[in-house]
Amino acid sequence: MEVMIHFVLTLVKIAVQASIYAALLLLVFRVFAKRHPNSWFDRCSRRYGRFWLLSGFGISVALFMFLFSYWGFHGFGDGPRVPVSHGLVVDNTNWTEYGYISEIKTSDDHDLEMTKFLAFDDRRMGNLDSWFDTYSNQFFVYDMRDEKLVEFPTEQAFNSYATAQGLPQASALKSFEENYHDRWGGWWFWLLP
């Protein structure tokens, strides 16, 4: 039910955004039309009601398609997600504190699951903490370029590695909710679906 409500609200948001973008596009066309009479901009913007409806429809279709792309899909209802680059996504279920990347396996052959993580350049780092599984190590750094996972048994070992590599310390790691709001909040929330 949460997914359906979130989906309907997102469709309403797309409709409102597309209407605003279409009105702004019409305004831009009208400004160009005043400077260049009898131009393509002038011909398009003369029938402003039709222009607004057609451009609004086109923009809403584009926003809807973007919503389901890797870069735009933030999950619906109780399944939020944060893309972390190179096609990988940190998923979450029911807004619990645990996020997981099912495409990456730890040395214990479990999915990479964490309560705190951070994206820094081409590396993703975090703690290894799971609701179901027990890990033999406590922290990790995943290099996106090399697709290499390095695990650390203690916070001290992680911090030593982070200092040597110029990475943030364990204290800089953020919860799933903080990462979600950093990625999807701010201007993104207002300008895109």
Structure explained in plain terms:
There is one protein chain. With 193 residues, the protein is an alpha+beta fold. It folds into two domains: 2-67; 81-184, no CATH class. It has helices at residues 2-35, 40-46, 48-67, 155-165, 176-184, 187-191; strands at 81-85, 88-92, 99-105, 111-114, 116-120, 123-127, 139-143, 148-152, 174-175. The strands form two sheets. It has a five-stranded antiparallel β-sheet. Strands 1-2-3-4 form a four-stranded antiparallel β-sheet. A hairpin with a 5-residue loop joins strand 3 and strand 4 (111-114). Helix 1 (2-35) packs across helix 3. The longest helix is centred in the first third of the chain and has 34 residues, at 2-35. The radius of gyration is 22 Å and the shape is elongated.
Describe the SSE topology.
Layout: H1 2-35, H2 40-46, H3 48-67, E1 81-85, E2 88-92, E3 99-105, E4 111-114, E5 116-120, E6 123-127, E7 139-143, E8 148-152, H4 155-165, E9 174-175, H5 176-184, H6 187-191
Antiparallel strand pairs: 1-2, 2-3, 3-4, 5-6, 5-9, 6-7, 7-8
Number of domains: 2
Helix fraction, binned, reads 40-55%
**Low-pLDDT regions:** none
Strand order of the largest sheet: 8-7-6-5-9
Number of strands: 9
Structural class: alpha+beta
Order of helices and strands: HHHEEEEEEEEHEHH
**Average of per-residue pLDDT values:** 92
Q: Total number of helical segments?
A: 6
Distance between the termini: 20 Å
Instruction: Kindly provide the radius of gyration, computed on alpha-carbon positions and rounded to a whole number of angstroms.
Output: 22 Å
Strand content: 15-25%
Summarize the biggest pleated sheet.
Answer: 5 strands, antiparallel
Q: Outline, from the CA principal axes?
A: elongated
